Structure formats: structure tokens, C-alpha cells
Amino acid sequence: MSPSGPLADQKDSRAAEPHIRLDAVTHAYGDVTAVGPLSLDVPAGEFLVLVGASGCGKSTLLRLIAGFERPTAGEIRVGGASPEPGVSSGVVFQQPRLFPWKSVGGNVDLALEYAGVPRSARPSRREELLERVGLEGMSDRRIWEISGGQQQRVAIARALAAETSLLLLDEPFAALDALTRERLQEDLRAVSTQSSRTSVFVTHSADEAVFLGSRIVVLSRSPGRIALDLTVDLPRSGVDADELRGSPRFAALRARVGHAVKEAAAA
Ligand SMILES: Nc1ncnc2c1ncn2[C@@H]1O[C@H](COP(=O)(O)OP(=O)(O)OP(=O)(O)O)[C@@H](O)[C@H]1O
What we know:
InterPro entries: AAA+_ATPase, ABC_transporter-like_ATP-bd, ABC_transporter-like_CS, ABC_transporter_ATP-bind, P-loop_NTPase. The chain has 267 residues and is an alpha/beta fold.
């Protein structure tokens, strides 16, 4: 028998709630308003990319969604509740922020331990995660023995280890060379397509936004507000990455986003 009355209404409203809901959110640092007012719903499973010029409030918005900061005004809900750092999302920063005295595997193990994965289940889960980010067989390597790109892969594996349904990434590939960056973009796109996770990714790059996003939000100059909200209608699986990047549709979207970023920065 299916529930009826108030219980059914409650269930329906929960099912209808997006994974992330920003309701008239503003954030100020003292006298400086960095973001808002801004309202945005992000449905579960979406790969949202936030793009905008330097200082428009992208990182602030991500920190608000992570729960590192509380909005000055308005409300943020993640999974129907106030965001809790380390609980409602996994976060990847521009710098990998690994524990240098631990091995690659040790870094992932720590995240698994923190996520409450039993000790006996950790080795197989660790190997699975390292394989997913292209680091199979590297568990025993020390952090200083691997490249910057590989360190960022470890950071992504750690964030995935948390098993949260939301992944937040703040310019994670910005410090990497172009080739490594493209490879990591391709791997992240594949990982996100295979899972049902919701992702929010911050970048300056229109190219990166179009390649990764299923939706792109361009922010205006500080205080950041929505200047463009675009659904990306490119295939997310069964397509060669180079072919995708070389397609006329990709070029058109990149030009549109690039133009919107420039306009928003000048407005
Ligand atoms: N801790 C802070 N204290 C005071 N002002 C801050 C703080 N963090 C950010 N700001 C200001 O808030 C505004 C938005 O900054 P934020 O870092 O969110 O932008 P961003 O778009 O991520 O920039 P970038 O692309 O350069 O990283 C800027 O004017 C910045 O100077």
C-alpha cells in the first residue's frame, strides 16, 4: 500500500527537491559583496561548470556549497539540508593538498577511513579508486615521487573515496601543463559519466567548461550573478575526445561561452 496524506506529500516534495538549491544567496566579506543575490537549482547527476573572470566569486560560491562559508543572506540546501563540510560533498582544490609523508595508497586509505569504510574493505576499494583515476599499481609510490598531474589524480581519488554524491572542484587542473590537463579532463568526464554523482566545477576556461559541463553558468563581475545559464547538448559517452573537441558544435559553444565571459567581465 502506498502512503497517502501528509507522508506522501512529504515524500513527493523531497523527491522534487534538486540536489543543490541556492535561494537568493548573497555572500559578503566585510563591506565587499562577493556573490549575489543568486538563485540556482542543480538537479542530481548534473555536471555544472561555473565560469567567469578572476574575482567574480566562483570560489566563494563553491565554498558556500561546500559549507566552508555560510551565506550572509539567503539559503543554501544540499540534499535538502544545510551543507556540512566533509559530509555533503567531496572537494578538490587547485593544489592537491595531500599528506606528503604518506604514500599514494596511504592518502587514499585515510580518506576511506574518514568515510567510515571498514579496514578490511579498504585495500580493494583503494585499488579500485586508483584504477579509476589512472594510477593503478602506484599505491606504494611516495607523493614526492609522482608528477603534479598524478598528485591531482590522487586528490580526485580521495574526493571520490568519500562516497558523497556531490563532487566540488575548484580549478583543479589550472596549474597543469596543457597535455596533462586534457588527459585529466577526459578521465574526469568519463568518471562522471559512469557515476550518478552531481559535480560543480570552477574554471576560467570556456574550452574546459564546454568539454566537461552538461550545464554551464557564466557569472558576472563581482558581485557574481548569473549572466548565462546554458545546457550543453554534446554527447557524454561513445564519442572520441579529440573528435568532440574538433567538432563545429564544440567550437560554437566555446565561442558562445567565451563571448559571454568577456561581456560579463566588462559589464
Ligand atoms: N577571504 C576573503 N576576504 C575578503 N575578500 C575576499 C575573500 N575571498 C575572496 N574575497 C573577494 O571576494 C571576491 C570574489 O572572490 P573569489 O575568490 O570567490 O573569486 P573567483 O572568481 O574565484 O576568483 P579567481 O578566479 O581569481 O580565483 C573578490 O573580490 C575577492 O577579492
